[in-house]
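Fold sample X.
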Amino acid sequence: MKTPASAWVVPPVQPLLIRDLLTRVRHWAGGQRIIYRDLREHSYAEFLARVDRLGRVLTDLGVKPGDRVGVLDCDSHRYLELFFAVPMLGAVLHTVNVRLTPEQIAYTIRHAADSVMLVHTDFLPLAAQLAPQLPDVQAWVALTDGALPADPGIALAGEYEALLAGVSSEFCFPDLDENTVATLFYTTGTTGEPKGVYFTHRQLVLHTLALGLNFSVHHDPLSLQCDDVYLPLTPMFHVHAWGFPYLATLLGLTQVYAGRFEPALLLRLIARHKVTISHGVPTVLQLLLNHPESAGVDLSNLKLVVGGAPLPAGLARQARARGIRLLSSYGMSETCPVVASAHPKPDRADTDAEADLEVCSRTGFPLPLVEAGIWSANGTLLPPGRDQIGELVLRAPWLTGGYHLDPVRSAELWRGGWLHTGDIAYRDLDGYVRITDRLKDVIKIGGEWISSLELENALSRHEAVKEVAVVGVPNAKWDERPHADVVLHPAHAGQVTPRELQKFLHGFIESGAIHQRAVLTEIRLVEAIPRTSVGKIDKKALRAALVAAAST
C-alpha cells in the first residue's frame, strides 16, 4: 500500500550555524589548549567562556544583527574568539587586510560600513590616521599584548581584556537564519578598488565539514587527526585562514597562534609545541626553510597544506628532504577557499617517491560536493584531456554569492551559472585539475599561449634557484616575450649566470616538456621578487616595473 505523504513526520529544520561548530567541543576538548605566542595559554573551557563574554561586550557596544565589525590584528586567540562571537550575534565579521595600503584599508572599512573596530596596539597609529575618514565607525576597541600606550591617538571604548573581565559569561546568542551573512573581507584585483567577498553561516559550516572530511579520510601524504597540533601560516584576515581555524576548533585541536609574522618565532613555536599541521603559500615555506634558525629545528613531524600559488618542484624536494609532508591544495578568495586537494588515489599507493611528489604537486582533485568544469572560449564545457584547455569554473554550496555592493562584477563572476575562477586549466584523465596559468598571466607569443607556471616550475628544479617569477613583457615582434626574475640561494650567488640557467631551461624545451618558444625567455638575477599583501608573488608589480624600465 502506498504511504500517503501526510503520514511522513518531517522534523524541524536545523539551520547550519557557526555556533553549532562549538557544540561537540564543549565536552570533548577539556585538556586541549589555545596558545598565543609566548604570552598566553588557556583551555577550551576558558575560550568558550570568553566567546560568551565577547558576545555581551559587543552587544553593549551597540552591535546589532547585520552590523559590520572590523578587525585590525594579526593571528591571535582574540581573532579566533571574534571568528565565532561576531557571526553568532548575527553581525558580520570584516577581517581587514592589514597589509594593504592605508588608502585601501580606509576604502574597505568605508565600503563595509564597519560600526565597531577592534585594533591591535601595533595599528593604533594607523587607526588614528584613518579615523577622520571613517564616519560610520562608532566605537574603537584596543587589543593589547601588554599595556596601552599613554596616548593611543584615538578615543577608545575600552581595552579588550578589561571589557571581557567586566562582564558575565552568561550570555545567550540569538537564533539565526543559516543564510545570514557571517564574514566579509576584501580581495585586490588587477584593476579597480578591492572587492568585498562575503560568506554565510551555511556556507562556512558546509566548507568546514567538507574540509574535515577531505583531510581526514586520506592518509598519504597527510591527514588531519584529533591529536594534531595546529598553527596557521596563513593570515587569519585572508579567507578565514583558509577555514582551518573553524575546523581545528570543531575538532578540539591544540591551537597555536603566532601574532606578527616572524620566521624565527614561528620556528620556535613549531619546535616548542610540537606543531604537526599547518598551511601556507610557497613563499612562507621558502622563508622558513631558508631562515638561519631552521637548520636547528626538527620539521619531520610537520604536515603542510600548500596553496595560494603553485608548489615549485624544487621547493617541494627541499621541504621533503627536511621530512615535511606536503600536499598542494587549490582555492581562491571567492571559494571560501578550499575546493581541491592533491591527495593521491588509492591505486597509486605503490608509486615511487618522485611519482608521488608529482601527484601531490598537482592543483588538486575536487573536494566532496565540488563540481569542476573547463569552460571553452565559446562557452561550452570541455572533456578531460591535456589538450582541452580553458577556464576553470566551479559549483559548490559554499562559493560566494558575489561581491558586496557590486552587481556588475557579481554577474560576471557567475555568468552561465558557474563561478569563473580566471585560471586556465584542464582536467587530466585521472580527474585532477591541472592549472596551467592565470588567465591574466598567460604569455601570448606569436598567436600561441605559453604557461608562465611551466617555465617557473622548470627553472625551480635547478639546484641554485631559490625563487623564480615569469611574466610576459611587450615585444614588437612576438606580441609578448617571457621574462624570468630569479633569486639564487646564497651559496650559489656569483657562481651561476643567466646563461647557465638558459642552458638548463633548454633541456626542458628540447625534451618537449615545455613550449619551444620558451627559448625567447630572458633571465635576470635579482635580490628579491615583489610580493602581494598575502605573500604571493606580485606579477602585476613585476610587469609594471619591467614596462617602466623599458620605456626609460
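Fold sample Y, listed below.
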Amino acid sequence: MTRITIAILLAAFLAGCAIKPTHDSLRDHALPRLVPVRDFVANTSYNGHYRISPDGTRLAWKAVAGTREEIFVRSLDQENARSLGFDSQGYDFRWAQDSRRLLFIRDAGGNENFHLFRVDVDAPERGPVDITPLDNVRVGIQQIIRDDPQHILITHNARDKAVFDLYRLDIDSGVMERIYRNEGRVTRLVTDREGRLRGRVRQQDGRRYLELPDAGSKAWRELIHWDEDDDVRVLKFTADGQAIHLLSNRGRDKIALVRLDTTTGQETVVYADPRVDLSFVQIDSRTLAPALAYSHPDYPHVEALDPALARSLAVFRDQGPVGIYVTSADDAGRYATVSVNDDRTVSFYLLDRHNGERLLLGRDVSQEFADALGRMRPISFTARDGLQLHGYLTLPPVSARPLPMVLLVHGGPFVRDIWQYNRRAQFLANRGYAVLQVNYRGSSGYGRAFMDAAMGEFAGRMHHDLVDGVKWAVSQGIADPQRVAIMGRSYGGYATLVGMTMTPGVFACGVDTAGPADLESLTRDFPVYWQPFMHRWKKTVGDPADPGDRDRMQARSPINYVDQVQGPLLIIQGANDVRVKLDQSDRMVEALREAGKPVDYLVLTGEGHRIRHWKNRLRVYRETEDFLASCLGGRSSGFDYYQLGSWLF
C-alpha cells in the first residue's frame, strides 16, 4: 500500500473528528462557524508585504504558490504578475536602489545567524544568491545608498562575535570594504542615504553618548549624552545637516519626537502624545523631515506631520478606528503602499499621492472568515497596588456568560500588545474563549514610570498584574474562574510557567512556547552581542555574576516550584532557539515528569524562537486547540487534512 493511499484512508477515517464544546456557556448556545486551523496558518489565499520599487515602476509582495510562500513581482502599469520561484516564508525583503534586485535576510532553521541574499527580478531563474556566505555570523542591512545602486552598507560580527563592524558591500560580487571598526562600545551607527557615516552612539560607564565626527580629524565630539535608563533612539539628520531627529524620553516620562541642534545640542519637541509614548516615527526619504508619528493609547493613532500626507491618508479614516501604516514609498514621493487594519482583517493599498486615488492590492486571508471572528476592545483596570493597567479583550460572538478564558501574555517583556488583527487571539475566540491581553507593568508604550515599576518584579508585581486582570474579568462576569488558562511565548511562556507553578489555583492549565524556566542559566546563555543592551534586563531580572542576584533569580525560576503544579501543561519549543535554548524546556519537562505532573511536550525541529513554517504552525495550533478543549471545555476542529499534506510534502 502506497504512502498516498494510506494518507487518503487515514484522512477518511479521521474526518469529522471535531470536538464539540462542553462548557455550560458554549454547549447549548449558537456559536459562529468553526474556522479550520489551516485557514489561520496555512491559507493558500495568503498575500501581503506589498512594496513599491524606488523608481515607482514595480510592485513586489508575498503570496502562496502551491504549498509555498513566495515573492511575486509585477509592473505597475501591467498585469504581468509572476513568482520568483523560491520559498520565502517568514522573511521580509526590500528593494535594492536599482529597482531590479530584491534583498532579504535569512537564517538557517531559526539560528539567527542571518545572511544577506539578493535575487534579480529580471532573471529569477538564477535564484537567490547568498552574498554574505560567512560562518556563524549575523548580518544586518544598515543603509540602502541613494546614488550608488551597486553598493549598500551592512553590519556583521565576523571579526568579533560581540560587536558589529560597518562595511560597504558590492551586491554583485559580494566584496566588502570595512569602513568602521567597532571597538566594542558603539551600539548604534548613524548613516545617511549617500552612504556616509554621520554619527555614532557610544556606551561607557552607565551612559550613552551621541558623537559626531570632528571635521578634519579622526576624532569624535560629544553632542549629548544620556543615562542607560533613558530611552533615546537616533533617527535621521535633517537635509541641511543642522539637526538630527530623535525619539527620546530624556528628561521626561513619555517618549517624544525631538529635534536636536547639531551645533548647540538644544532639543525642541516636535510632537508628543500626552497619553503614551510614541511607538515609532517615519522620516520622509526625500525631504528627511518627519512624516508620520505613531502611538497606541487604546486604538492606534497616526499623526501626519506632513499636511499633504495628512490629506492623502484621510481617505482611509472613514470606517471607525483603524491602524494606518505606510509600508513603502517611491523616491519621487508619488506612490506609497499602505496597510489598513482593524481588529479582524488587514487591507493593502497602493496610494497615488498626486491624485489621491487608492488601489486595493489585496486583503489578508482573515477577510474570508471575518464574520466568524470576535471583536477586540480596549480595557483598563486598577492593579492591587493602585497602578492603572490597560489591555485588550476579545470575545466570541456569543451572549452566554461567564466564558472559559485564555489569558494571552505578550513576550518581551519590554514590548506591548496593540489593537489590531491578532491571529492567536481570534483563533482562540473562534474556539469559544474570551481572550484577555494585559499590558502588565514593564510593557513599553506607557512611559518611563510604568517601565520602571517592573524593576525587580519578575514573578512579583508583573505577575500580580496578570492575576489581577483575571480577577477583573471574573468580577465583570466575563470569565469562569474555574476555567482560565494562561498562554504565551517567550516572556509570555515564562509567565505561563510562573502561573502554573506559583499561582496554581488561578489557572486550570497552561500553554508555554519558548518560556524560560531557569532565569540564571537563561541570562548566562544570551548571545554575546546582546551585552550592550542588557542594562534594563539586569536591573529587572538580575545579574548572574552577583551572588545576591543569583539567589533572587533562582527564587523566581519556575523550575524550582514544579511540585506546586496542579493543572496540565503543554510546552512547545523550537529546537534551534538561541534566545531561550532547548535546555530550558528540556529541564522543565524532565522536572515536571519526575514530580508526576501532567505535561505534553512538542519540540519543533528546524525552528528557532519564532515558528516560521506553516506545517509547524499547523501542528502547534492543532495541539493547542485539543489541549484547551480538554481543559477549558471549548471546541476543536479536530483532524485537519492539511496535517496529511505536511506529512506527504
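Sample Y note: Residues 47-144 form one domain.
Also: The chain has a mean pLDDT of 94.
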